[in-house]
Amino acid sequence: MTVQNADVANIFEHIADILAIENANPFRIRAYRNAARTVSSLPKPVSEMVSQHLDLTEYPGIGKDLAGKIEEIVKTGELQLLSKLEKEIPQGLARLVEIPGIGPKKAKYLYKKLNIQSLDDLERAARQGKISTLKGFTEKGESKILKEIDSFKQTDQSKRTKWVDAHEIALSLVKYMRELPDIDQIEVAGSYRRKKVTVGDLDLLVTCSSPQKVMDHFKAFDEIREVRAMGPTKATVVLKSNLQVDIRVVKKESFGAALLYFTGSKAHNIHLRKLAMERGYKINEYGMFKNQSMLASALEEDIYKKLGLSYIGPELREDMGEIEAAQKKQLPKLIETKFLRGDLHAHTDLTDGQNSLEEMAMEAKRLGLEYLAITEHSKRVAVARGLDAKLLERLIKKIDKFNETQNGFLLLKGIEVDILSDGKLDLPDSILQMLDVRVCSVHYNLNLSMEKMTERIIRAMDNPYFNILAHPTGRLINKRPAYAVDLEKVMLAAKARGCFLEINCQPHRMDLEGEHCKMAKEIGVKLAISTDSHSINQLHSLELGVAQARRGWLENSDIINTMDWKTLQGYFKRN
Known about the structure:
This protein is α/β, with parallel strands linked by helices. The protein folds into four domains: about 5-155, DNA polymerase, domain 1; about 160-250, Beta Polymerase, domain 2; about 270-325, DNA polymerase, thumb domain (Beta Polymerase, domain 3), CATH 3.30.210; about 335-570, Alpha-Beta Barrel (TIM Barrel). The protein has helices at about 5-20, 25-40, 45-50, 65-75, 80-90, 105-115, 120-125, 140-155, 165-175, 190-195, 210-220, 255-265, 265-280, 300-305, 320-325, 355-365, 390-405, 430, 450-460, 485-495, 515-525, 540-550, 565-570; strands at about 160, 185-190, 200, 200-210, 225-230, 235-240, 245-250, 280-285, 285-290, 295, 340-345, 370-375, 410-420, 435-440, 470, 500-505, 525-530. Strands 11-12-13-14-15-16-17 form a seven-stranded parallel sheet. It has a five-stranded mixed sheet with strand order 2-4-7-6-5, with helices on both faces. A three-stranded antiparallel sheet has the order 8-9-10. It is globular and about 75 Å long.
């Protein structure tokens, strides 16, 4: 059994939730959360690291005890500690903490007072008006809980696999399949290839000399939980991670046509077929035909060329004008990771990060970046030990001292400052003006109406020290929907004030969406691609943000951190 990084991280997060409900030592709880974050951002599969006997304690937040637990999970697929903890509290209780407003203490309180052991129990008690009778709860709060439950259920029912988790599985599966010498070509298509933020399933396309050997080898993959269909050239299975995988063996001469067809999107394919029909052609998964004569099939590029189109990269295939642009030879020259010169959002162990300032700087430098902005949380984010003005001033001096020893690399003095409910920033202008960059974000009071949230953010932009709006919609993939905000109004306000928006590279955020990136480009607002790193490993996730930018048609000139610092500095000095 191949254990994925996400499996280990989920186990550690679950343990942390149970420990929080049991009111365990907060340092112990934090240790498991930090370990989960570290495992999620490891540079290679944890199962591979264990099999190679690599020292996991070299990574932040992983001590000897936790390294042993990781090894236990990888070798057995489970953890005895979790099994023990799950016997101490009702199985569904830990899930309650996923509901906004129901923290560990409230979950335990509700269990003691009303014997609430599950999400269904919580909903039933709220609908019966029982929760508002308890100390610390109100009728308004009870109504809010019901709304949060409805929102949570909708998100939970539509859960898809995060791209970064699907990527780990895809790499593992492709590596396994390539052990078979009969395979010539192999590619993962579908929404995975288009790099959507979440993936419904994996579509595996293969060309080979022996289809039967391929199907037998595929069927023996140790991560398969259920075989739903198995034929001589195609099969459907469900993995232990609950991700569905479809495999198809296709003829070599049809590989390009099959790759085009199964990559999608459906809307893009329909538009292509309509275009082909207008020219007397037919396109399907086997090729492009005129009457019975095959015109193109082995390469995607040949099919686009026969239709009079420039080649359209997978990220653009959403029928958002890419076919019309390809007809006019006006497709954008998409941004590439190698052109990013800096990262404008990162945290250290001074607040909720896992590595020191020096470690973060050295890793950024090793990755070839010219600058890195240290943007610790402001004081409003107490859970992350956010900085007040006095502590921030100390950090400014520390960064200045660090930069004196550098040659060709620069740490930028920054802050991730909270946008308060009234639109004010969480720190005074007197300290904000001492910084190189101010990243501004919403972390609390997320349930405002669209009008009030939009007004709150735009009012914050009126502050001359507002530079970048971080994670602009506040969504957490599969956990929390975006807050209500009129992004078009926000972008127009940003353009008028000389502000920018962020494409956040955190795998659980991936915020903005591709269509919002495209909207920003059309409005004329430049964006920053930032990792929001909390460890040195997360500095490697710039390419995730680049994928979002490419889905939004963005070019180098649309991204501010393709600029050198001297040029970018001028953009941050608002009039």
